[in-house]
Amino acid sequence: MAERSFVEEVKKLRLSEGEVFRGEGILAVTKALLESGVAYVGGYQGAPISHLMDVLADAQDILAEYGIRFENSASEATAAATLAASVNYPLRGAVTFKATVGTNVASDALANLASGGVTGGALVIVGEDYGEGSSIMQERSHAFAMKSQMWLLDPRPNLPCIVQAVKDGFDLSEASHTPVMLQMRIRSCHLHGQFLASDNRPPAFTVRDALENPVRDVDRIVLPPASFLHEREKVEQRWPAAVRFIQERALNEFFAEDAADVGIALQGGVYNSVIRALQRLGLADVYGDTKIPLYVMNVTYPLVDAEFDRFCEGKRAILIVEEGQPNFMEQNVADILRRLGRDTALHGKDVLPMAGDYNTATVLAGVRAFLSQYGFAEPAAPAVPAVAAPNADDALPPLDSAVAPRPPGLCTGCPERPIFTAIKLVERELGVHHISADIGCQLFSILPPFNIGSTTMGYGLGAASAAAFNVAPGSEPTTKRAISIMGDGGFWHNGLTSGVANAVFNRSDNLTVIVDNNYSAATGGQDIPSSRAHNPTRSTGHEIEAAVKGVGVEWVRTVKRTYDLQAMTSALREALTTPRKGPKVLIAQSECMLNRQRREKPQRRKAIAEGKRVVRERFGVDPDTCTGDHSCIRLSGCPSLTIKENPDPLRRDPVASVLDSCVGCGHCGEVAHAAVLCPSFYRAQIISNPSAWDTFRLRVRSWVIDRLQRAEARRRARFAC
Q: 584-589 and 555-559: which strand pairing?
């Protein structure tokens, strides 16, 4: 069950020539693929590109009408290898995944693809997750494009430019026999706009045509001596062909080219920020008309020497606006200007930050600093001092120090919470263990209150990153075992072979905990081989336990309900203390609460609207019983748990309280009992559309409670006398 359904939106993919398409960037990319005559599409979900996979999954009936093959690839490497279909055949193919982590996973296949070259257009749509708000290490796709000499498109962030970039990408790939990367930044993926649609095109050459007419070209295979010739072919044939195509098609854009004797050369993806900065300086209007010459590089690799020569004509200085580091493009431009003999001054990271997201405020500061040197803008005003408070001795602190940080965390009712609680409880008995974390929701356990995990090396590499933590044969034995954690999505992505099978092969004695929550939850809730739900187009229901036993793991335990804290602690204790040697796998199962709520809430609302009886469970804390110890909060960290003022005037410690966001998972109550705390938690039922029997029971209970409360009040009154 994906994070969002696009069933209604995909109907727009049927729009034909001249009709206006309105929607999100991701949906526009899908429409552009259909208009380009793509023959097959694959990919792996990951922000900010997850929704592209979800759109394609919801549009399979439309894809089928045009004979387009679509796959939810097992990993980015699988997706990239799919492009092998375009090596020998004039098949247009596209794959998509998150950059740069997805590009790293796919690097072997992409490098071989770029070496041998392609016959049909091969487009790699990468979701660039760089800058503030990113969930990954801060790297750029640009380095990979340079390394393998794949052309990199970075279109201006508006729908017509993005759609055109998809079409140009296929044409450029075929003209230069080189795979092309299309960079989709977060802002481009989720912006909304409109463009004039064209008719969808069936592929000119289909997968069926390729199967029935097989072709083999040994020169395209990366094997000596062909592999040595590929490098010369890149430089002598493919690169010049790409440059010619870029110039002839005018993929890069010039604006107000002769308006001033200074100019700005920028990546297409930061165009909106640059224009907004110029508007703030009074040098551009809301329509994009600018008084400062702009050279917009919708193709950021390769750069075109002749176009820079043209842009620098008659200019004293130019500014390169290049987001991220290293400053590949600025260095390249410096080399171009040197070889051309141009004396145009070059600015870039001297006025702009070397690293970090180039938002409008950042770009404005850099553009102002550049233009003020040449008399086109006023220098920035001195920094405004802290605002004085009414009391002259105090000053308001900076906002970033006054607002508490809000790191990401597990959702309310997340089934992974009790797993980490169980680990903390077992560590009270057995001591602290080394724990290798993994990419996914479980990575949030590194933060308070759990503070679990020492490293994370990549998606599905949790078990592999604990591989070294095994005592060498013949050495003094240890009483502890390393623990590694991975999710079910990471397990199927990479963990089965590189982690579990590797542990079997090398006779590891560690414990791997696999969180089986039914989905690839961290990437948006997509189905995976072990998902429980029936998927009409995918094969699901394949048990993780069978898979790990299939590669040779002998000690395997499955806990069917992670909220059963006693079962979780018992299984962990056994895994860490058993004298049996060899890899151990503990599979902890419970459905992702977020996806469960997405499924059940609409059903519950519908049932209530129809007058049906609906029962919801909620937990609460009795303030008279709560001791104020708050271990329930420290051991679960649930967002629905908070504190409130103690109602007893003789007790000063605040008591625990449960907010209305509680989903009734019961973990807080389990924690209270497992940690031998006060029995202050109670479970309540909220009944919508109660039956006559429900109403009768409520009246009886209310009557009994009222009598008991009155008796207690009389007893207290006697003692007061």
A: parallel
Amino acid letter, residue 528: I
Query: What's the farthest any 2 CA atoms get from each other in the chain?
Result: 104
> φ and ψ at 235, to 5 degrees?
-75, -40
As a whole number of angstroms, the distance between CA 120 and CA 39 comes to 10
Give the per-residue pLDDT at 484.
95
Rounded to 10 degrees, the C-alpha dihedral 238/242/243/248 comes to 140
Q: Which of 200, 188, 128 is nearest to 159 (CA)?
A: 188
Mean pLDDT per block of 10 residues along the chain (721 residues) reads: 72 94 92 96 87 87 92 92 96 93 93 96 92 77 93 96 97 98 90 95 94 91 89 95 98 96 96 96 94 97 97 96 94 96 96 91 95 88 54 59 72 91 93 92 88 89 92 84 94 93 95 93 85 86 95 96 93 96 96 88 92 89 82 81 85 86 79 58 87 93 90 78 59
Q: Name the nearest CA neighbour of 162 among 133, 136, 179, 187.
A: 187
Report phi then psi at 233, rounded to 5.
-65, -40
**Can you name the residues that pair with 118 across neighbouring β-strands?**
none
What pLDDT does 673 receive?
59
Please report which helix (H) or strand (E) contains residue 531, including its range: none
Please enumerate in sequence order all residues whose Cβ is within 8 A of that of 230, keeping only pairs 6 or more positions apart, or say none. 115, 116, 117, 222
> In sequence order, what are the residues at sequence separation of 6 or more whose Cβ sits closer than 8 angstroms to the Cβ of residue 64?
none
What whole-number distance in Å separates Cα of residue 688 and Cα of residue 573?
42
pLDDT of residue 720: 64
Task: Find out whether the peptide bond into 100 is cis, omega within 30 degrees of 0.
Answer: yes
**Peptide bond before 225: cis, by omega within 30 degrees of 0?**
yes
Q: Which residue has the tokens 């075992």?
A: 481
Concatenated DSSP letters for 612-644? --EEEEEEEE-TTT--S--HHHHHH--TTEEEE
Asked if 246 and 297 touch (Cβ cutoff 8 Å), the reply is no
Helix (H) or strand (E) holding 370: helix 360-373
Q: In this predicted model, what pLDDT tens digit does every residue of 548-586 receive, in sequence order? A: 999 999 999 999 999 998 999 999 999 999 999 999 999
* Separation between Cα atoms, residue 126 and residue 165, nearest integer Å: 13
Alpha carbon distance 512, 486 (integer Å)? 8
Residue-wise burial string across 239-262, b where 16 or more C-beta atoms lie within 10 A, e elsewhere: bebbbebbeeeebbeebbeeebeb
Task: Tell me the pLDDT tens digit for each residue of 111-140.
Answer: 999 999 999 999 999 998 887 667 777 888
pLDDT value, residue 676: 47
Instruction: Give dist(CA 200, CA 190) in Å, integer.
Output: 23
SS3 string, 455-491, reads EECCCCCCCHHHCCCCCCCCCCCCCCCCEEEEEHHHH
CA–CA separation, 510 and 64 (whole Å): 46
Q: Is 534 helix (H, G, I), strand (E, B) or coil?
A: coil
Between the CA of residue 509 and those of 111, 477, 582, what are the distances in Å? 36, 11, 4
Contact status, residue 483 vs residue 511, Cβ threshold 8 Å: yes
Instruction: Give the alpha-carbon dihedral of 209, 211, 214, 219, to 10 degrees.
Output: 100
What is the residue-wise DSSP string for 213-250? Answer: S----GGGSS-TTHHHHHHHHIIIIIHHHHHHHHHHHT
Q: Tokens 């990408």 identify what position? A: 169
**pLDDT 10s digits, 243-285:** 999 999 999 999 999 999 999 999 999 999 999 999 999 999 9
- pLDDT in the model for residue 612: 93
Q: In what order do the strands lie in the sheet with 345-347?
A: 253-255, 294-297, 262-267, 317-321, 345-347
Please answer whether residues 179 and 154 qualify as being in contact, where contact means their C-beta atoms are separated by less than 8 angstroms. Answer: no
